[in-house]
Amino acid sequence: MPKRSYLLLFPVLLLLAAFQPQKLQHPPIPREDPHTEKIAIVLTEQPVEEQHVKKELEKFKNTKLRHVFTQAINGYSVQGPASELKQLEETQAVLFVSEVHTYKVENAGHLQPKRYQSSSSFIDNFELIGTEAVHGLLDEKGNHLTGKGITVGVIDTGIDYEHQDLRRSYAGGHDLVDGDNDPMETNGFGFKNTLHGTHVAGVIAANGRMRGMAPEAKIVAYRALGPGGSGTTEQVLAAIDEAINDQVDILNLSLGNDVNGPDLPISLAINKAVDSGIVAVTSSGNSGPNRWTVGSPGTASKAISVGASTPPMQIPYIDSPGTMGKIRLELLQGSDNWRITQSEHLVFAGLGRKSDMTDVQGKLVLVERGTLTFTEKAKNALEAGAIGVMIYNNTNGTFFGNLEETMPIPVAAISKEAGLALKQQLKNKSMLIRIHLIEETDILADFSSRGPVTSTWEIKPDIVAPGVAINSTIPGGYLSLQGTSMAAPHIAGAAALIKQAHPDWTPAEIKAAIMNTAKDIKDHSEKSYRTFEQGAGRIQTEAAIETDSLVIPGSLQFGQFQLSDNLHRHSAKLTVKNTGSSRNSYAFSIPKMQKGIEWELPLSFSLKPGESKEVELAMKVTPELLDDKVKDGTLVLDDGTHPIRIPYLYVLEEPDYPRVMGFGFAPADTGNGYRYEVYLPGGADEFGIALFDPDHFRFLGFLDWGRELKKGMVTKELPLEKLPEDGVYLAKVYAKKAGRENMIETMLYIDKASFENRPRKR
C-alpha cells in the first residue's frame, strides 16, 4: 500500500487495551534549564510599593521588576531566570509566583472577513431573552431602560471607536499592549488583525443601525489582547487594575485559557474587582463538551461565568441509508447559509485537494480534515462546481471552525464517526442523501465549556446566553461569530439594564437576579442539562429586572464528601431578600427522592418589603449508596408567585478522573506540521509523549514534554522541522500528578513528505 494511504486510514489508532509498562521504559523527561528566562506574577500578602519591591529584588542579580499592580491584586510582575524565580517564591512576604499565561479571545473560530454592510439586528436573540420588552420599561427617573448612565468596561482586543454604531457609545480607554490611551483594534498586521473587541462591544452597546443590549451605555475599552487576539496575564491584570481605578459599573472579559483552576491571578483579580463594586462577566470557554473544561477567568468565584446556547436557528441535518441516523451539520463561520432542502448526491473527495475533486459538479462533497485549510478545501470544491462541502474531523468528536473569507456555498463540519460512516457507505461512488432543516432553540453549544471547577467544586458556568451565529459590529462592517465570547456580552448588557433599573443593587444581587430567574434548558431528548453545564439556565432579562425576590448566592456547592468522615452532613446558608412592594411568603419544595440523600430544609417564612433573612439548609449523604462521584440537582424556593431554582453540586472523595484523556494527533489545518490535543483534568506534575519502535519497544525520544502543566486542554502544533523522520511510532502519552500516573498508548503515523508538494500561502 502506498505510504500516503495510511494517512487516510490511520491518522490515530488509540490502543486502550492492556498496556504492559515493562515494554515501554523511557528515561526521565529533560530537566528545565535553570537559566531559562521567564515572566511571572508575584502575589504578596500585602499591597506593595515600587521602591520597596526594587530593594527586595536587589538580592536577585538577574530578576527585574516589570509592573506593580495597585488595584487588581497585591503583587507585581517580574522577568528573570527560572532558578531565581524559584528562590523568590521562598521569600517570606511572597504567597506564590505564577508563570505568565497566554489569554486569547473566546470565540469558536476566528475569521478574517470581507468588509460588508448589514441591516440585520440582534432582534431574534433579544426577543428570546426578553431584552426588547425591557427597553419599554422605565427606571426610577422615568427613562427607558437602555443602559443610560451605566459604564461598561470591555477588556479585549480593543475597539473600532470610529465605527458608525459605536461612536456614541465609546467613552475612552487604555491600551495595555502598546502602553498608550488609544485602544484601537490591531490593524495593518494581515491575518493578525483583530475584530473581536468591536464585536463584543456591539452586542453590549451598539447605537446606530444596530442597537445592542444596552444601547445608551458607555463603553470604556481596555486593549489587553494584541495582534492575533492574544495577550499575557500581565496585560490582563493591568487592564483590570485600570478598570477598578476607572470605577466602571460592569466589566466584560470575553477571553480565557484552558486552565480549570480558581486561584490563578486573573481569577483572584476578578474577585477583587467584584469586591470593589463591579459586576464582572466572563466567558466560560470554548473547550466543551467534556466536564472540567471551564477555564480561567471563567472559574472566578464571584464573576458571572457565561456559557453559550443557541438562538432560534434552522439547523441542517442529513439522512442517508445505512448510516447512523440523522447527522447534524455545524456550519463554519464565513460559510453561506444552508438553503439546500431537497435530496442531493454526495461524493467523497479525500483531503479536498484539487486533484481529489473529480465528478463533483452539482453535488455535495465529503472531505477529511487536515493538510489543507478549511478555506482551501472549500475553494477547491467551489471551483470544481460542488454545491456544498462537509468536512469530517480527523480526531474524535466534531469541531467548530471558520473560513478565512466568506464563501458562496455552505461549508459544514461533522464528527469523525459520522464522516467515516458516510465514507464507508460511499465506497468511491455517489450516494443520494436527504437534507432537513430543523428549528432549534436553547440548545447548549457543543463548544461551550462545562464545569465544575476543580478543587472548589463550584458550579460554572453560572448562566448561559445566545452565543451561536451572533451578528454584530466589526471594523468596517458587521459579521456573524460564535463562541462564549458572544454569549458573555449579552449578560454584560443585561447587567447594565438591571443596574439602571436597580442602582442600589450590589454585584452579588445583580448576579442573583440573573440566576434566580433563568430558564432551565433541555437537550435534543428533552432532558435538562446538568447544573455544571448550564448553570442556572438561560437568561430571561425581563424576569431578572422585575423579580420580587433575590436568593444569594444563586447556586450552592456542598464541597467534598469523604468516605472516612464520621458525619456525612454538609450545610450551606442562603440570604433571601424581598425586593417587592408587598409581603411575600417563602417555602421550599420537597426535593425529589434520591437514594442516599436526605435534606434538612427551613420551614416556611414570610418577609416584609425590603426585608432579608438568612436561612440554613443541609444535605446528609450515605456515600456507599451513591453511584456518581459528581452529584448535582436543583432546589426550588417558591415566593408565592414564582419558583426560584437554586442549582447545587457536591463531589464524593476526589472525583476519579484520569490524569490524561482525549489525546488526538493529526495533520494541522495550516499544512505546516501536525497538531496534538490532550486533556489534563487535574493538570500534571509531569507530562510526556514518548515515542517507541513499535516492533521492539525501543525508546526513540520525546515528541513533546512539559512540567507543572495546569488543568485543562493542551493543544499544540508541532512544525515539520521538530518532527522525527517519516514512519509509524508507538507512543506512550502519560501524565503524573500527586504520585499517580495514567497513560494512553497510541500509534502515530508521521508523513512529512505528503506536505512537500502542496502550494504554500505567501
Notes on the protein architecture:
Keywords: Cell wall, Hydrolase, Protease, Secreted, Serine protease, Signal. Residues 1-23 form the signal peptide. Residues 348-422 form the PA domain. GO terms for molecular function: peptidase activity. The chain is an alpha+beta fold. The protein has 14 helices and 41 strands. The strands form 9 sheets. An 8-stranded mixed β-sheet has the order 16-15-22-18-19-20-21-17, with helices on both faces. Helix 6 (196-205) links the parallel strand 8 (170-175) and strand 9. Helix 6 (196-205) packs parallel to helix 11 (484-501) and helix 7 packs parallel to helix 8.
Characteristics:
disordered N terminus; alpha+beta; 762 residues; 14 helices; globular; single chain
List the helices and strands and how they pair.
Blueprint: H1 3-9, E1 12-15, E2 37-44, H2 50-56, E3 64-69, E4 75-81, H3 82-89, E5 94-99, E6 102-105, H4 123-129, H5 131-134, E7 151-156, E8 170-175, H6 196-205, E9 218-223, E10 230-232, H7 233-246, E11 250-253, E12 255-256, H8 265-275, E13 279-283, E14 304-309, E15 313-319, E16 327-328, E17 330-331, E18 344-348, E19 364-368, H9 374-383, E20 388-392, E21 411-414, H10 416-426, E22 431-440, E23 463-466, E24 470-474, E25 477-481, H11 484-501, H12 507-516, H13 531-534, H14 541-546, E26 549-552, E27 556-561, E28 569-578, E29 584-588, E30 597-600, E31 605-607, E32 612-621, E33 630-638, E34 643-652, E35 661-667, E36 673-680, E37 684-692, E38 699-709, E39 712-719, E40 727-737, E41 740-750
Parallel strand pairs: 7-9, 7-11, 8-9, 11-13, 13-14, 14-23, 18-19, 19-20, 20-21, 27-34
Antiparallel strand pairs: 1-41, 2-4, 2-5, 3-4, 6-10, 6-12, 15-16, 15-22, 17-21, 18-22, 24-25, 26-28, 28-32, 29-31, 29-33, 30-32, 33-34, 35-36, 36-39, 37-38, 37-40, 40-41
